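Hi,

Apologies if this is the wrong queue. I'm a grad student, and the batch job for Ribosomal RNA small subunit methyltransferase A from Candidatus Ornithomonoglobus merdipullorum produced an output file that my downstream script rejects. I'm not sure whether the problem is my script or the file. Here is the sequence I used:
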Amino acid sequence: MYLASPTVIKNIAAKYGFTFKKGLGQNFLTSKEILERIAESAEIEYGAIEIGPGFGVLTDELAERAEKVVALEIDERLIPVLKDTMSDHDNIKVINADVMKTDMAKLIEEEFGEKPVSIAANLPYYITTPIITMLLESRLPVKNIVVMVQKEVAERISAAPGSKDYGALTVMCRYFTRPELVCVVPASLFVPQPKVDSAVLRLRVLDKPSVEVSDEKLFFRTVKAAFSQRRKTLLNCLAANFPHGKAALTDILESLGIDPRRRGETLSIAEFAELSEKLR
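Support response: The file is valid. Your script probably expects a header line. Output copied below for reference.
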């Protein structure tokens, strides 16, 4: 069955009396070309985990490339639909579960052992950042995380220092991964059609963090503080979040060759690492 078609998606919805829930961010992609790009970008060697398969339009592409696909679907109404639409494949396991409440490390160990795994997902806009944060902070043994997200979020994650999109989310993703914007996906390619465009983002998971820090919590606290008030200088942002006092903070910044008048969005991830070490 060719699933990536607005007509087929609407027919499946009618067959099962399925109504799309805005609260779950249910917008199904109808472009086979984009679906193929997502699946190819995952660079699957053995296994794939999909978050939110919906009717299975991406699951179908992943199953063509993987030895095994595990799909996590939060909406129990979609379980019988997926059983039907994925009936041509014998390498797909669908689990009715909320990824935010799932022990992903345990799932990977039980389903794939030590075999290589990639993650792919068309993430609901409302929970994009929490899911990406959870996947990265869990330090999962995965090669790539390929996600379709709101275009604005993809631009933030892949932004360069000094740009208006560069922020704490950018730094976090660059700490754990090498982000790459794969392509932009117009809203017109979804059913139902969202109000904004999306983008496909590949996060190549690093073997070790991109910078070395002795206190990871302090590193991320420093990053968060620097972006806490984007219009204020780095000195003022740090002073509002650390007890060192402005004079001591000025000395720390100047010792690193960082002008206290700079703003957080101008700092590279290496500069954040050096700064966090000095704030210990």
